[in-house]
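In response to reviewer comment 3 from the previous cycle, which asked for concrete evidence that the modeling workflow produces usable outputs, we include below a single protein chain processed end to end. The sequence was submitted unchanged, and the resulting structure tokens are shown without manual editing.
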Amino acid sequence: IKTPLNAIIGFAEIIDGQYLGPAHRNYRERAAVIVDQARQLLDAVEDLDFAAKLRAERARGNAAGAQGGSALAQVFPPIVAEVEACLAANGALLEVDVDEERHRCALSPELVQRLLRRLLLSLCSLVAADEIFRIAVTRRGAMCLLTIARPHALAGVSESKLVDPSFNPTLFAPAGKDDEHGVGLGFALRLVRGLAKVAGGRLAIDEHRITLELPAAE
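The workflow returned the following structure tokens.
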């Protein structure tokens, strides 16, 4: 899958950049959309590939985490910076509550970063102007919990709908309409849920919150 996707991205970039000569604006705009969508799909394929490798390692009895696990205080800040940029584009605000001293996840930094980044960036684009995107990191027993308050755009949406791969709401879409472009929110949440399960955690969804539970380091 990666090989044809990379070829599609390459040809679309050639059109968008007019490297082989002038191209009509409509062709360039469509090529730019193709590049964006293909890159999102390629990123999703990388997640699936990563999940397959992780499952194979666990089947062989290897631990999912690196020695000592991952300090969330080190993994979290770069992702938060991306979330803040996303929210700023919509005029939204961020509220983060993290106990930097206590929380260390038993998984590798690569896996933790992949999970947090996909989950948070998929949700933050739905936060409306002047709305507050609330994130909290806590620990309960043997699990580290990343809890996210549902954006208003997802109020009343059932769990089954949220993890439907075709579900892709956008902040500015008409009520009841899903965006036809890009990798959907439902697809992203299903990926996160699958990766978390393979790693010994889970993605829990209730009426008000979406919580990523990951094994804590001893």
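Strands lie at 70-71, 93-98, 104-105, 132-140, 143-149, 202-205, 209-215. We consider this sufficient to address the reviewer's concern, and the full set will be provided in the supplementary archive.
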